[in-house]
Design a protein that fits this description.
single chain; 1999 residues; alpha/beta; eight-stranded mixed beta sheet; eight-stranded parallel beta sheet
Length: 1999
């Protein structure tokens, strides 16, 4: 006793208890009690003992304690009773220590979390908490290491069976009759989908015995040998039933247990369970007894919530103990209720359901019947009979309870004036809040700053947008200043949890502080009508319970409701959302009741009381729905609230949309009318309105007769309209076979309306209105009509309200409105087998129609902004990248003047996200197939990854979904993967939201490992601190469905309200960003939290907006890598290891190389207009991108003001990717939508115009050629043409000419009559074009050419021109030579005021067939005066021989356009050849090229890491690739098509989809994962069984299983061909051939046009025959030439000089040459040009002559010709090997003379030598010196050497130099050297070197040699010739001249006194030149610098 007394004495100061008397003797009337301590004034005592409850003795309250832990509890309770707050709350760590000693680390950690939550940093025990945390972490890590080292299985501390038996020994139930407790057990599944074992506790005479049994070999026994085993299911079932007997058997959650038992019994025995079994649902009884306890998922959870002890000292306790104590507690609780209440509950629970309604228990299979929810004998136990039968006594109790219930208002007390205090008085250290707090209050600087800003807002009429990060304490931060003010205020939240938290936690604290300050304030709370219970509805139910009680679930719900109604102090239905029976709960809300209640209930209505409190309070805590509903209905003149604070403000526009949307719900209305009429089988009225419709005095009341007529007529029309609507829905949705009940099908209303249905709806509207009027008149007469039930008036009022609501919505749906969208939702019931329900032979669709407003910002601006003087918008997520622009627009807060702009502020979270949070993104995840409703392959991959994450995190995870369907599909897959590992997986459908969150929060403390799956409701308002939530997985970015009618309408509305807007980028992406930021709030809720977020949606890294979102999320440790790397990073982060950010995007980033001097000069030019004419491979696009980067980085323009134009989607995406990698996401993303093709730009202009005109235009689907072919066919028919006279290819050319010439159709039409006489073919062409354009426009379609035409016409409108002229400040155009006159005109209309940068190459103009005009580039300076012109001539792409060959080809064709082509000197050592491959036929060609393609893919390309080799096979037209494609398939060489118009066997989208699915299924079949009874699952089973082993069989099976439309006719033919080619080929060949991995190497098949701008390591060009390349002239060639002349004459574009027929003919031939040039310059390392003598095209064999291009390009020095593919050698540059010594591969610095050197210092030396005329060679091997490449060699000076030593401080480098110097000295080589220091004074250093070399040369060769050197160096300095070294001896005076294409001089001979004889020498690129006779040279004598010099020029040279 002394020990306990000492403990109590030590605790007194901690709890500030008064001085007690020790060892006090309490004298009571009948006994004396010895107290350890007594507080006499308070009559409170403490004595030794173990009782938990207090004892009342003689007016004294006596506590008992027997331990230190209990002493602390007692002292705390006494302090609370007395009203004393402890000065410092000290923590008790004893339980933490026990759990740590028992190695229950999770429980210890959670116990520690619970303790630490009570205090804040600075508390005396804070450091002790951190010490314990470290001990737990180290102990857990040590335990893991031990387990890993020993490979010992993890065995639970206490087995489940032992736990049950321990429970049985502890429980004592002597006051209860004999009964059983039954449970089913599975270690793998808590959802009761399987039974592994059964346990039964038999309670007989108060003692419990446990029987726990499973089948032999069962998983339960495998995990726990304590289970008894039996041999068969039959034996197990029979034993269980025998033990159950007739005794009452309690189960937890009857539905799951009994359904499973019933199915099990049927399967094992073939019969239903015996009917005499007496099961009772203890879970439901607990809900009746404790209706406000939401943790009813498990008995143990409920005990914990109620504070009922069921465990032993170590916290061990199982379901048996929990259920036993709950049973006792329920009995005691229910028996203690007032008699009237008990009788009401007894009547409900004992109510006998009609036989037809009972059927089975809660939907069980037939054969298990119950007469009532609780058997009579157990009703007597729980609710003994009493003398107050019926419900009237209960209703009297109910009325008295609510009469006493005060309005929901909290107050502070005082008389002090608020203005005498400041917010700092509350928030400062030692301030009022700290004095009022029961926790360790901490002063927060950011919270104070935020509160002061709120205080400022209360005196400022400008709106305030304040972002307050998680953890700042924003709620208290705004409540204090608002209550200090003198204005009434509304505080509004979005979520109920935050509203409830403010009401129950924050406001009591603040009002306590205000009481301490002596200031009186009052606060009330109000919610939407539907949140309050309607007492009148409950009374109506009790009047006729048979009307609403259909199942036992309804009985339990009503009983629980009746109990709750006498407990609740609020009437909030959210308190009972966990009770089930959603049908009844939905009818309970005040919004479902009549607007006017009966007098008995009106005065005590909870909602009315709340509204009354609102009028009295200084501050009202509301929610957004209520605030906006009030704003929509309130009279502004009567509104007396000035201040509105909107918390969670980022959601308000969504809430306003919900509040303002009108709904027409015909089926709900029909069911309501049917329920009150309730006709029987004979059509007679049996429902509530029978008393009205068959009233005996109906003829006496005109109102009653009118009502009868109206309701019968409305009933009829309502049924007829719903039936007609169902038929219409069936027609609309006839293709729907699968339906997700959670995702109704949305459709625009104009799709639904047909004239008959629309007219019927108007008639129905009149009937609804008429019936509502009749009800209104009847209600006035109703008090005079006798014999009616009271609830009839309420029902009529409710029906009138619903009629008016539906009539209003229907009337709105008839109107055409620009500011609203009319749409509908279709639903249908789905049976257990997934079939759509039918009624009367048609699908039983139902629908609701809606009218949703679009101008939410306008409504807010005109309503809320007017209603409230002071508006404050608060959230943790308002800004995007620190900017509030998006949210300001959404809220309608834009102002014309800066001084009226909203005030913004950001108050960051105090959490260190970089240390506390990890963001991980696996970059190898796939997107679901959009064609499939459920893509099993996607779900399998997601499940695998999430399961791996859950394994390393040991549960403690939440997975967020955006689709209920996906969540349902994922749930069983995750359960099968995780439950064998002891990890429980639950979804939000398994229990109420609050229960699930609580369970996740407490899981570690209970030893549970848990994963929770949730939908959008879990993205916000979830508050889980500590390690209970360590990993958050986001499976899909939270985008709204873009095809939803509301989304589409919002997009149109938003873009129509401004100029050139982008709804997705400016509204949708920022909104998703805010949701993602909210996500962090779920994970990190305190300074101690630590967790990982994993985003598995691949769009976060594949889409530009995704990368933009990633870069703007809070700065965290970020890992982007493959899935295994991500999983490991999460593991290490959670283990406390240091994880570094890493970004691997799945492929190597594009490297932006350094600019060459000429490129840099262009990029940095200050000119406003620049044109760059560039050779192929010269880096023109790189220069363009670099220029954009410079403009952005130098802030010369905003990114969104830059326009970059390209010609293809591929080039567009590459350009943006490079910009993003160079600039980063923040700078590049605003530019994203402005990097586009000319056609996208045109469509953007058109769509902007459409928005203003209310029109809509869509691009024609050019991937489906059948659409355009159909238009051609109609146009030909109208023009009198046939397909033979105008083939489709020529038709496209004809149309392109006219469109790109901007021909005016009316002018063209006027010319037709004239041409019909003079040129009938041209007249037909004109008619064809006019018909085609008209057909396009009639269908609201547009092709690429028409897009440009329409855009130009729009821009020529003055108003539109004014808008677009200054839209872009900088415009960049790539490939300008390919622009058409129309596109050039488009650019001129946009770019007159802009900075303009254009690049192009006339030699690559290959689109004249589309109307392009190369003259646009040639004459650019005339269109845009004052343009600076630049040239780029060096080809960095192609190998040297190819550069020379292509240059020679252009020279011979006359297409060099004055641009000199040079190869990159870095590649001067490459010696690859160009090959001409001659073939007899296309079949032999295909075999040869397939072989070469395979070799090309196998090449090893240098790099670190080595990139995959690329091979491109290019043709002039698609049909040339047909034979080759078949050969590639046969040889199994993987390939793919590239090009938007690709034609081929596998080019069609439908076929590619089948192939992709086939490859995926082959891969999946290798694993063990089951896919269920899906079509994919069936195919996988056949693959595994070997039933499908051949590729064609698999492809045909997949085609048969694919949903939706079949292949097109063309695709069907190609599919047949594919299966024929693949005949008998195994599946592995199919997988290898069409591997879906994008990174796997594939040959690219394409046309030259499709690959413009691309490059390949190996290029094979086929079809080099006359008629193929060059392409034969079109059949309509002469006609097309005439047509082009007509177009030019009628053109409204920028055509140039008129062209003659000869000019047009020449242009066609020139373009064919340019196409070949483009084809060959795609090659980087290898080029093969192929021809076939015979080809089979379109089923016809034809011989072809060799293409003339081969001769034009031929050069025997550059080209090798062969007829055998084995002669072709494909090579790559040699890889650099460090052990081979010095190699030239490291040369990266280009010198002035064109040579590349290794270092910058060597470059400076070389440039100085060149400047002085000193000739040198660089790194040339020297005879006699092995493995040494000298830096510089000077031939003029007798091969003297210079070495530059740049890395002398490097030890290895120094050793290597010393070795080299030794070799020089041994060989007698004279060398000099320089160092880095000497480079700093370069001229002096070179002067010194020059003198030293001259001195040494004179000593070796004499003075004459030095004189000669001076002369030749003067010539090099002053001559235009590039003079090299001497050939032969120096004294002979003949020096080589570097050969150039425009200079025939190859050598010079210098004549001087000391130099006597001339000499001939070779060009540098040839080792030796042979001069047969003097006639081969021209000699020209000239004078240079006073010397006689002979120039030697070539005439003919034999090589």
């Amino acid at each position: 006793m002394a020990d306990i007394l000492n403990i109590l004495i030590d605790l007194l100061p901690e709890f500030d208890l008064p001085e007690p008397e020790a060892n006090y003797l309490l004298k009571a009337a009948d006994r004396h009690i010895e107290l350890l301590m007594a507080f006499r004034d308070q009559k409170i005592g403490i004595r030794k003992g173990g009782a938990l409850d207090t004892t009342m003795v003689g007016g004294w309250t006596v506590w008992e304690c027997d331990s230190a832990e209990r002493a602390r509890v007692v002292c705390a309770a006494i302090a609370k009773t007395i009203g004393i707050e402890p000065s410092v709350l000290r923590l008790d760590f004893s339980r933490v220590a026990k759990l740590l000693a028992a190695q229950q680390f999770e429980s210890a950690r959670d116990e520690l979390d619970a303790l630490q939550e009570k205090i804040q940093m600075g508390h005396p025990d804070w450091e002790k908490c951190e010490d314990y945390r470290k001990k737990i972490r180290m102990a857990a890590r040590g335990a893991k290491t031990t387990d890993s080292a020993t490979n010992a299985p993890v065995i639970p501390q206490i087995s489940f069976v032992v736990l049950l038996k321990t429970d049985a020994e502890r429980i004592l139930l002597s006051d209860i009759q004999d009964f059983n407790i039954l449970g089913l057990f599975s270690p793998q599944d808590e959802s009761l989908s399987t039974v592994d074992a059964v346990w039964l506790a038999q309670i007989r005479g108060g003692k419990a015995t446990v029987w726990a049994t499973c089948l032999e070999g069962n998983p339960a026994y495998a995990n726990d040998p304590s289970w008894e085993t039996v041999g068969s299911e039959v034996e197990l079932l029979q034993t269980m039933l025998a033990k159950i007997g007739a005794a009452g058997t309690f189960v937890w959650e009857a539905v799951g247990h009994l359904t499973l038992l019933q199915r099990w019994h049927r399967r094992a025995i073939g019969m239903p369970l015996p009917a005499e079994l007496n099961f009772i649902d203890l879970q439901a009884i607990c809900r009746v007894s404790f209706p406000m306890a939401h943790r009813t998922d498990l008995a143990e959870s409920l005990c914990k919530q109620l504070g009922i002890s069921f465990t032993d000292e170590m916290g061990n306790g199982g379901p048996l103990a929990a259920m036993a104590v709950l049973l006792q507690k329920c009995g005691a609780t229910l028996r203690a209720l007032p008699e009237e209440q008990r009788e009401a509950l007894r009547t409900v629970l004992g109510f006998k359901l009609p036989d037809r309604e009972v059927g089975n228990l809660l939907g069980l299979e037939a054969g298990l019947f119950l007469n009532a929810a609780v058997p009579t004998e157990w009703l007597d136990y729980f609710l003994p009979p009493c003398k107050a039968p019926g419900f009237q006594g209960y209703l009297d109790l109910l009325i008295r309870h609510y009469q006493k219930l005060p309005p929901p208002i909290q107050k502070s007390i005082g008389t002090r004036k608020a203005h005498t205090l400041d917010v700092m008085d509350f928030f400062k250290k030692g301030g009022l809040l700290e004095r009022a707090a029961t926790f360790d209050y901490r002063e927060r600087v950011d919270q104070i700053a935020f509160s002061r800003k709120i205080d400022d807002a209360l005196t400022d009429e400008l709106p305030y947008l304040l972002e307050a990060g998680t953890g700042i304490g924003k709620t208290v931060g705004y409540l204090v200043p608002v209550l200090l003010g003198n204005q009434r205020a509304f505080v509004s939240t979005h979520t109920k949890p935050l509203q409830d938290q403010a009401w129950s936690k924050d406001i009591p604290l603040i009002l306590k502080a205000f009481t301490l300050a002596g200031i009186e304030r009052s606060v009330s709370i109000i919610k939407g009508k539907g949140n309050y219970v309607c007492l009148q509805t409950v009374a109506d139910w009790l009047a006729e319970p048979g009307e609403i009680l259909r199942t036992t679930e309804d009985q339990f719900f009503l009983a629980a409701l009746l109990n709750w109604l006498l407990i609740t102090e609020t009437g909030w239905l959210s308190e009972i959302e966990h009770l089930g029976s959603w049908r009844l709960r939905a009818l309970l809300g005040r919004d479902q009741a009549p607007p006017k209640l009966q007098e008995a209930w009106a005065d005590i209505d909870p909602h009315a009381k709340a509204r009354e409190a609102v009028g009295k309070a200084d501050l009202v805590v509301a929610n957004h729905s209520y605030v906006f509903a009030v704003a929509n209905a309130v009279d502004t003149s009567k509104h007396d609230v000035d201040v509105l604070i909107l918390d969670e403000a980022h959601n308000i526009d969504e809430v306003v949309t919900e509040v303002l949307t009108l709904h027409f719900r015909p089926w709900a209305l029909m069911h309501e009318v049917d329920s009150v009429i309730k006709r029987d089988d004979k059509g007679k009225v049996q429902g509530l309105y029978r008393a009205l419709l068959h009233h005996p005095q109906i003829d006496d009341y005109e109102e009653l007769k009118k009502f009868r007529n109206r309701i019968e007529s409305t009933e009829k029309h309502l049924h007829e309209w719903c039936q007609s609507a169902r038929v219409r829905l069936g027609d609309m949705l006839c293709d729907i076979r699968d339906f997700d009940p959670d995702l109704p099908l949305a459709f625009p209303l104009d799709q639904f309306w047909i004239s008959s249905l629309h007219e019927a709806a108007k008639s129905l509207h009149d009937h609804l209105t008429s019936l509502a009027n009749a009800i209104h008149q009847l209600l006035g007469q109703l008090p005079n009509i006798k014999g009616l039930k009271k609830r009839i008036s309420g029902s009529l009022l409710a029906l009138e309200e619903h009629l008016n609501e539906n009539a209003e919505a229907l009337n709105d749906l008839f109107e055409t409105r620009n500011d609203a969208v009319h749409w509908g939702e279709a639903r249908v019931r789905v049976d257990a087998h997934g079939r759509l329900a039918e009624e009367e032979g048609i699908t039983a669709w139902t629908t609701e129609l809606h009218s949703t407003p679009l101008d939410i910002a306008g409504w807010l601006k005109g309503t809320v902004n007017v209603l409230y003087k002071h508006r404050i918008y608060v959230s943790a997520t308002l800004s995007v990248g620190g900017e509030f622009k998006s949210i300001i627009e959404r809220f309608g807060l834009e102002a014309e003047h800066d001084r009226l702009q909203p005030v913004t502020g950001i108050y960051p979270s105090p959490f260190d996200f970089r240390k506390q949070a990890l963001l991980a993104v696996p970059h190898d995840m796939r997107l679901p197939d959009p064609v499939l409703r459920v893509d099993p392959l996607y779900i399998e991959q997601q499940s695998d990854h999430i399961a791996e994450l859950a394994t390393v995190s040991e549960g403690r995870m939440m997975v967020l979904f955006t689709s209920n369907l996906m969540m349902r599909e994922m749930l069983p897959r995750l359960q099968s993967r995780l439950q064998p590992k002891g990890i429980l997986v639950l979804s939000q459908t398994d229990a109420g939201r609050s229960a699930l969150i609580d369970r996740l929060r407490e899981a570690p403390r209970k030893g549970e490992k848990m994963v929770l799956l949730g939908l959008r409701a879990f993205w916000e308002g979830v508050d889980i601190t500590g390690e209970a939530l360590s990993v958050l997985v986001v499976s899909k970015l939270p985008f709204d469905y873009h095809g939803h009618p509301v989304y589409q309408a919002k997009k149109r509305f938003y873009e129509a309200q401004g100029f050139d807007r982008d709804y997705f980028r400016e509204r949708v992406v920022p909104n998703v960003f805010l949701h993602l930021r909210q996500m962090y709030g779920r994970l990190i809720r305190s300074e101690a939290d630590r967790g990982a977020t994993v985003i598995t949606d691949p769009r976060i890294y594949t889409k530009q907006y995704g990368k933009h979102l990633l870069q703007r999320l809070p700065e965290t440790t970020t890992v982007i890598d493959k899935s295994p790397v991500v999983v490991d990073a999460v593991r290490r982060f959670l283990d406390g290891e240091d994880v570094q950010s890493s970004y691997v995007w799945g492929e190597l980033p594009i490297t932006i190389l350094d600019l060459s001097p000429e490129q840099k000069h262009i990029v940095e030019s200050p000119s406003k207009r620049i044109i760059v004419r560039a050779a192929a491979g010269s880096g023109k696009t790189h220069v363009l991108i670099s220029r954009i980067v410079r403009v952005v980085e130098a802030v010369l323009a905003k990114p969104e003001d830059i326009l970059a134009l390209t010609f293809t989607n591929k080039a567009m995406n590459v350009m943006y990717d490079r910009l993003e990698q160079t600039l980063g996401g923040d700078k590049s993303y605003p530019m994203h939508r402005n990097v586009m093709t000319y056609h996208k730009l045109a469509m953007r202009i058109i769509r902007q115009d459409n928005l203003q005109q209310g029109a809509e235009t869509e691009f024609i689907d050019e991937k489906n050629p059948e659409i355009q072919e159909g238009l051609f066919q109609q146009a030909r028919a109208e023009a009198g043409l046939t397909e033979e006279s105008l083939i489709s290819e020529d038709a496209r050319t004809l149309i392109a000419y006219a469109q790109n010439g901007l021909v005016n159709e009316s002018e063209l039409l006027e010319k037709v009559p004239e041409w019909e006489k003079s040129a009938p073919t041209l007249a037909k062409f004109a008619k064809f074009f006019l018909a085609y354009v008209r057909l396009l426009r009639e269908r609201n379609l547009i092709d690429y050419g028409e897009a440009i035409v329409r855009a130009v016409r729009i821009l020529r409108d003055p108003e539109q021109a004014k808008r677009w002229n200054n839209r872009f400040k900088w415009i960049f155009c790539d490939e300008y030579q390919d622009t058409s006159p129309a596109q050039a005109t488009l650019l001129q209309l946009l770019a007159q005021q802009a900075h303009l940068f254009v690049v192009g190459d006339n030699a690559q103009s290959i689109y004249s067939w589309q109307g392009s005009d190369p003259d646009n580039l040639r004459r650019f300076e005339l269109d845009f005066p004052n343009t600076a012109t630049f040239n780029l001539s060096k080809n960095y792409r192609c190998f040297p021989k190819l550069v020379r060959m292509s240059a020679r080809f252009l020279d011979r064709c006359g297409h060099n356009y004055g641009i000199r082509m040079e190869y990159d000197q870095k590649r001067s050592t490459e010696d690859q050849n160009v090959y001409y491959l001659h073939n007899e036929s296309d079949h032999t060609e295909a075999e040869a090229i397939a072989k070469l393609a395979g070799e090309g893919l196998a090449l090893e390309i240098p790099g670190d890491p080595p990139p995959a080799a690329t091979v491109g096979i290019l043709a002039r037209k698609w049909n040339l690739l047909d034979t080759l494609e078949r050969e590639l398939i046969k040889q199994g060489i993987p390939y793919k098509f590239e090009g938007e118009t690709a034609r081929g066997i596998t080019a069609g989208g439908g076929i590619r989809q089948i192939i992709t699915r086939a490859v995926d299924l082959c891969k999946q079949s290798k694993g063990e994962q089951e896919f269920g009874d899906t079509s994919e699952g069936k195919i996988i089973q056949k693959l595994r069984k070997g039933e499908i082993s051949k590729a064609p069989v698999l492809l045909q099976a997949i085609r048969a299983s694919m949903p939706g439309e079949d292949l097109t006719a063309t695709e069907s033919y190609e599919f047949y061909r594919l299966t024929q080619i693949l005949e008998d080929q195994p599946l592995d060949n199919l997988v290898r051939l069409f591997d879906t991995n994008e990174k796997s190497a594939k040959v690219v098949l394409s046309t030259v046009h499709s690959q413009k701008g691309e490059e390949f390591d190996t290029v094979i060009v086929i079809g080099l025959e006359e008629g193929n390349s060059p392409h034969e002239h079109p059949k309509s060639h002469q006609g097309l030439i005439g047509w082009r002349k007509i177009v030019q004459a009628l053109s409204h574009a920028t055509w140039r000089t008129p062209l003659t027929d000869l000019d047009l003919q020449r242009l066609y031939d020139e373009e064919e040459r340019r196409i070949f040039y483009v084809a060959m310059t795609r090659a980087k390392h290898n080029l093969v040009v192929s021809r076939a003598k015979n080809r089979n095209l379109f089923g016809k064999s034809k011989n072809y002559d060799k293409s003339a291009f081969l001769a034009l390009a031929h050069d025997p020095k550059l080209v090798r010709e062969t007829s055998n593919a084995y002669d072709v050698s494909l090579t790559t540059p040699a890889k650099y090997k460090p052990d081979e010594g010095y190699r030239s591969d490291g040369r990266v610095y280009q010198t002035d003379c064109g040579i590349l050197v290794r270092s910058k210092s060597e470059m400076l030396l070389a440039n100085e030598f060149t400047k002085r005329g000193i000739f040198f060679e660089y790194e040339e091997p020297q005879e006699g010196i092995p493995d040494a490449l000298p830096d510089f060699i000077f031939p003029d000076y007798g091969q003297v050497i210079l070495e530059h030593l740049g890395l002398l401080e490097d030890h290895t480098y120094l050793e290597r130099w010393e070795k080299k110097a030794t070799e020089y000295e041994k060989s007698g080589v004279r060398y000099f050297r320089t160092s880095e220091d000497e480079i700093k004074n370069l001229p002096a250093t070179v002067d010194r070197l020059h003198e030293q070399m001259k001195t040494w040369t004179e000593s070796q060769c004499g003075a004459g040699r030095v004189v000669g050197i001076d002369i030749i160096e003067r010539l090099r300095r002053d001559s235009d010739l590039r003079i090299g070294k001497a050939i032969g001896s120096f004294e002979q005076g003949v020096f080589e001249v570097m050969e150039t294409s425009d200079n025939p001089v190859i050598a010079i001979s210098v004549r001087a006194d000391s130099l006597k004889r001339p000499f001939v020498f070779s060009p540098p690129s040839i080792e030796k030149i042979i001069i047969p006779s003097v006639d081969d040279l021209d000699c020209e004598e000239t004078n240079m610098i006073g010397l006689c010099v002979v120039l030697l020029k070539t005439k003919k040279v034999e090589r």
